[in-house]
Specification:
The protein contains 14 helices and 9 strands. With about 325 residues, the protein is of the alpha/beta class. Helix 3 runs antiparallel to helix 11. The protein is globular and about 60 Å long. The structure holds (2S)-2-hydroxybutanedioic acid. The site of (2S)-2-hydroxybutanedioic acid has 7 residues, from loops.
Length: about 325
């Protein structure tokens, strides 16, 4: 009797100690592609999600994260998502217009958000949810908004005033608002995939670019750009999206667990975003490879004056109602400079 008890006990404790991953013979695999380095707000949040998804589903789901465009670069990843070759992405909000959802370009408007707090009024409210609804006819479901940060201009010549960018070839993401923004500075916009930017800067295909510091640093752009002006003239953040067919096909309990993992990851992403960017700015400064300029109040004002007219110019493309509702939410007044 004692032996049977002992055996029973041994089997029970062996089962309890078994890694839960082994309990799931055929896990559901989520391929999560993205284009930035692991050590960035998005890269770290994707790893966090992979870990929590595995834990909360007790191994029923395995998330494979492919960072740094190793699987697909910008345009390809969107196609792969729609085809269901990958299941999850977190493209920047500037990358949704080529799908035909121009509304997302509202996030690219220069100076539309003064702070993360203002931005969150939009992403965490009904406007953010309404924008996600527009993705569904494209076979995509929006799950969350993840922050990165505010973009600054870099080039190989000093950037003190808007005219300093005149005639410069500037890399942009695929957004008409960003195209208009560069033209408003009399610069020449050049659309390039993120994975191509470092090489393009190095070889002179483009003269400059705009980035949140975490991207500038982790892609080593600071090694091939001499000047950084902390203009913080626009926001760059992400929509975490899944293939709709895949998402709808998940068992309801698994979907719930993944939603919980996503909520936790969003909190994590948005908690670390500023910190990562601040840390990377420090690292850029320490590298001694770039001169970092903090614009004076006057210089900041000159950039605003040059760039705020882009709002009006893009109003009909983005939609007047959407623009007005973002203004109402954040308190932005284009007339008040
Ligand atoms: C860019 O292309 O500059 C960014 O969208 C990259 C990213 O995902 O942060």
């Amino acid at each position: 009797m004692k032996v049977i008890h002992l055996l029973f006990g041994l089997v029970a404790s062996a089962l309890a100690a078994m890694p839960f991953v082994a309990l799931a013979q055929n896990p559901i695999v989520i391929k999560f592609n993205h284009v930035v380095a692991v050590d960035t707000p998005k890269g770290l949040a994707a790893e966090f999600f992979a870990k929590r998804a595995g834990e909360l589903t007790r191994g029923k789901v395995r998330v494979e994260v492919y960072a740094n465009s190793t699987l697909y670069k910008d345009k390809e990843e969107m196609e792969a998502l729609q085809l269901g070759v990958v299941q999850m992405l977190a493209p920047s909000l500037a990358k949704f217009a080529p799908l035909g959802v121009r509304d997302f370009e509202v996030f690219d408007l220069p100076y539309i958000f003064d702070s993360y707090a203002e931005l969150h009024k939009v992403t965490k409210g009904s406007i953010g949810q309404g924008l996600f609804k527009k993705l569904e006819p494209k076979g995509i479901i929006g799950l969350a908004y993840w922050d990165n940060g505010f973009k600054s201009f870099s080039a190989n010549t000093p950037i003190l005033i808007p005219d300093d960018l005149q005639g410069k070839k500037m890399r942009i993401q695929p957004s008409s608002v960003l195209d208009a923004q560069m033209r408003a500075l009399k610069a020449i916009p050049r659309m390039l995939a993120f994975s191509e930017v470092y090489q393009a800067l190095k070889t002179g295909i483009v003269d400059g670019t705009e980035n949140p510091i975490s991207n500038l640093y982790t892609q080593k752009m600071f090694e091939v750009q001499k000047y950084l002006a902390l203009t913080e003239h626009g926001y760059l953040g992400y929509a975490v999206v899944v293939n709709k067919r895949f998402w709808d096909s998940l068992p309801a309990d698994v979907r719930d667990q993944l939603e919980t993992a996503m909520k936790e990851s969003t909190r994590y992403a948005n908690d670390i975003a500023k910190e990562q960017n601040d840390k990377d700015l420090e690292a850029v400064r320490k590298s001694g490879k770039m001169q970092v300029h903090v614009p004076t109040a006057e210089q900041r004002q000159a950039f605003k004056k040059a760039l705020i007219p882009v709002h009006k110019e893009m109003e009909s493309r983005i939609g007047k109602d959407l623009l007005q509702s973002v203004y109402r939410e954040t308190g932005f007044d284009p007339a008040r400079l």
